[in-house]
Structures are given as C-alpha cells and as structure tokens.
Write a structure and sequence with these properties.
With 489 residues, this protein is α+β, with helices and mostly antiparallel strands. The protein is built from 18 helices and 20 strands. The radius of gyration is 23 Å and the shape is globular. It comes from Sphingomonas edaphi.
C-alpha cells in the first residue's frame, strides 16, 4: 500500500538508427492513444514511476534498442518507464509503452541484460503479439487482481465472475499473457536487437538464467517470507530449455561473446536502488504486514501468502483469500461496508447478507458482516471486516471463503490489526543495493554475512550476483549487497 512515491532515473546514450528502414512499420494509432490514456493509471497501479538519472538511463537504453525494432519513429513512439514495484516484472502495452520494475533491475548484473529485457518487451510490440492474444487479456485492476487470486479457492472463475463488472468500472487497463511461442519469438527479437545495437547477445541467456535462479530461490523462501510468487514467473514462462535456446540464438548472430556489457556503468546506476518493499508502501516481514507511515500492523495465519500492492495487500491460503485496504469514513460503518460491497459486485451480483455485527479489536470499534453469493461455480461466503481507525478513516478486509466457512479462517488476522508505536515505526528501514568493491580478505561468506536478511544470506548473495558456491572473488571486482538504507523524510 502506497503513501508516497519513490525516485529514480538515467544518462543519455546515443541512438544509432537501423541500417535500413525500408520496411518500417507504424504502431496502430488507436493503440498509441489508448496506451497514453492508460499510462497514468498504470503507473499509479504499480507503485509510481521513478524519475531522475536511473529512469533516464533505462529510457536511453530502451531507445537505443528500439531503434532496431523496425518501427517507424521508434525513438519517439516507444516509452520506457521504471516502476517503484517490489515485484520482479517487465511488461509491454500495445502502443509502445514498456515497463520495468526496480525489483527486476536489482537482479541484473550489467547494461546488456537490461537491454535484453527491454528488447524482449519491445519485440512483443513490434511483432504485434497483443493482437494475437487479445482474447487472452487479463484485467489487472486492483479488484481484477483480487478476483484472479481469490478465484483459486473455489474455482478459477468464482470471484472473477462476482466482481468482473466492478473491476472493469474501476480500471480498463489490460495486460497480456503471451503464449510460449510468442515468448520465444520475443527472445529471438530481443537478441537480434542486442547484436544490432552493439551489445553482447549472450546477455539474453545470462538474464534468463538470473530469472530462473531468482524464481527458484523465491519459491524456497516463500514459506518463511509469506510472499507470493514473482509476477515474471507466471507471465513469462521460465525454464532451462528457454535459457539454452537463447544461448543458441545468440551464437547464430555470429557475435556471441562480443559487444558491450557495460557492467560498471550499470552498477553505478543501480547504487541505492530500493529492493523488496518500500516502507512508504508498507513491508512484509514473515507473516506480518507493517506500515510505518500509517503506524499499523497485522499478521496473517500460518501458511498464508501476501502480495503488497499500491492500494491493497492481497492474502491467499488454503482456507480462503482476502484483501486489505482502506478509505475515508463519512456516515455510519454500515454504510461504509455497504459501499465496499457495491464496489465489489458492481451491483450485478446479489449477496444475501447476514446481520451487521459489532465488536472491539485492540481498542478500535469494528463492524463486520458475512454474506452468501451464488455464482456459476457454486455458493461462496463473502465477508467484510472494517475498523474505525480514527474519526474519518476506516480500514477493512474483504474475504472470500468456501460456503459455510464465513470469517473463521481469518479470525486471528482480524484480531491482530493494531497500532504500532513511534519507535516501532522508526525502526523500519528500506533495503537498498550497495555496490561494493571486493577487497583483500573478502570471501563469499564474509560478504554474504553483510546482507540485510535474517535467512538465506548466502543464497541471496550468490543469486543476486549471478555467482555460484565455487566462484572466485578478485580484489577490485564489484558485487552487489542488499543493506539497510535510510528512510526518506
């Protein structure tokens, strides 16, 4: 949940146009206009756009790559935006807009790997993959995400059907999930652009390998971190076979192992990048979500996973699914809950509500209700548990459970919401990347011990830097650490 945006940016790189533009293609103007219209909402939905030198750096690398996409006026029509998101992801929107998260940048080790990612996404646009997959688009508004996640508890379409109209009213923004063949094609196009722009095309395989390793490590950590799977793993199918195919495609360019990597220049731009959650949006630590600026904390039941979003926190587990958010309070708690339910259903699905119930949680007045909704996949229980935080602010959980379960699977979570002290809030600091120079006597173990985590320190260090347990460190070599930074005022 976001309270303030972060910052970021970049340096200019000269763009060399493609050798021949005889068969340049123009982007569909309707797509361009729609992408421009949706851009502010997209940015807000994913944590805000970063500005400054690093963002400009990403933009310049993107434009250098896009010049070889065969798109007319590529330097003007393609837009590359860095998002303040803790999810490892990059995606493209028809109309020339490419987005990359700071979290994904954090696992890269040089500029060539960045160039491959933006080239891959540019390839999706240049090859018009969106048109081919239009029918497979997924609504990614906050309610749309909730529907997609919550649907898993009682069937893929239950909650999605329940709130689809509301989700569409909230946001018409759509992202596409491409086919495996389209992903491979985008890899090949990205590799082609890499080679043409003077980068080492081997960066494709090394970047995909980084993603495979990062996804595997995140899967191992999940049980302890209670964080859901990185988005890249679900929208961009990863495998060692895909890494091998990228390596073969790189060799076919005849430039494998040649060209720019620009490692030091990239690492200089990466210095200070926030990783994981931005405290300004709240942080997930173990089973707890804590927001230092809002001075609140709650804890999910054992075995549940969380995903921190711009406007809400999504919780999922075997017993049910939920989402936490808040809003302004005017009138009665009953009317507030009624408004939440109307937004949830768009007024198109009837929910048979039980009586409003009153209670007190950690000295806060609370109101809750459970209703039964009949869907095409069967009956489900929909609940709202709302807290009067202060005179004009309410926070609430929306839950979905199997019919008959009601709010029971989340009872401990409802009772855990509390205010935190000023000292607790002040103790929460962001994790940032610190690029350090290996000195004499430094070892993998000593450097890993400086990582700002209580667990998996060695695994995190090796994965972050693309190293193995047998890697040798050389004095003067630069490596990335994740350390605690300072809170922005």
């Amino acid at each position: 949940m976001r309270i303030a945006l972060a910052l970021l940016a970049a340096t200019a790189v000269g763009i060399v146009p493609a050798a021949t533009q005889a068969q340049q293609q123009y982007l569909n103007q309707r797509d361009v206009q729609e992408a421009a219209r949706q851009h502010p909402e997209m940015v807000a939905e994913f944590g805000g756009a970063e500005t400054g030198p690093r963002a400009a750096y990403v933009q310049s690398v993107g434009r250098r790559i896009a010049a070889f996409s065969g798109t007319a006026n590529a330097g003007q029509v393609y837009r590359f935006t860095t998002l303040n998101s803790a999810v490892e992801n990059a995606f493209a929107v028809p109309g020339g807009y490419v987005y990359i998260t700071r979290q994904l940048m954090g696992i890269m080790n040089d500029e060539a790997e960045l160039a491959f990612v933006v080239g891959h996404e540019t390839g999706h646009i240049a090859a018009n993959h969106a048109q081919a997959r239009k029918s497979a688009s997924q609504n990614n508004s906050i309610l749309g995400v909730l529907g997609a996640v919550l649907g898993a508890v009682v069937g893929n379409n239950v909650f999605g059907n329940l709130i689809s109209q509301s989700a569409q009213q909230f946001s018409k923004m759509r992202l596409l999930s491409f086919s495996r063949d389209q992903e491979y094609q985008a890899d090949v196009l990205g590799i082609r652009y890499l080679a043409a722009a003077g980068y080492d095309p081997n960066a494709s395989a090394s970047m995909l390998s980084q993603l495979v390793r990062s996804s595997a490590l995140e899967s191992r950590i999940q049980g302890d971190a209670n964080r859901s799977t990185p988005e890249w793993a679900s929208t961009h199918p990863l495998s060692q076979n895909r890494v091998a195919q990228a390596s073969q495609a790189a060799r076919r360019t005849g430039k494998s192992g040649q060209g720019m990597r620009n490692r030091n220049a990239f690492l200089n731009q990466l210095e200070g990048v926030t990783v994981d959650d931005d405290p300004a949006q709240g942080i997930i630590e173990g089973r707890s979500f804590t927001h230092p600026d809002l001075r609140m904390q709650f804890t999910v039941p054992t075995g549940y996973l969380m995903q921190n979003g711009t406007r809400a926190v999504t919780i999922q587990g075997s017993g049910g699914q939920a989402q936490f958010s808040g809003g302004r309070f005017a009138g009665s708690m009953d009317s507030y809950i009624g408004q939440v339910l109307r937004q949830l259903t768009g007024g198109r699905t009837q929910i048979a509500l039980g009586p409003m119930q009153r209670t007190t949680v950690n000295s806060m007045p609370a109101t809750y209700v459970v209703g039964r909704a009949n869907t095409s996949s069967g009956a489900v229980d929909v609940g709202v548990f709302a807290y009067q935080w202060d005179r004009d602010t309410v926070y609430h959980f929306v839950t979905l459970t199997q019919a008959g379960q009601g709010l029971a699977p989340f009872a401990s979570m409802f009772n855990s919401l509390r205010r935190i002290s000023a000292s607790e809030a002040a103790a929460i600091r962001p994790r940032v990347i610190d690029v350090v120079t290996v000195g004499r006597g430094d070892t993998l173990s000593s450097l890993a011990g400086r990582m700002a985590y209580r667990d998996f320190q060695m695994d995190r260090f090796l994965t972050l830097n693309g190293l193995t347990a047998n890697s040798r460190l050389t004095p003067g070599q630069k490596v990335k650490l994740v350390v605690y930074g300072l809170r922005r005022s």
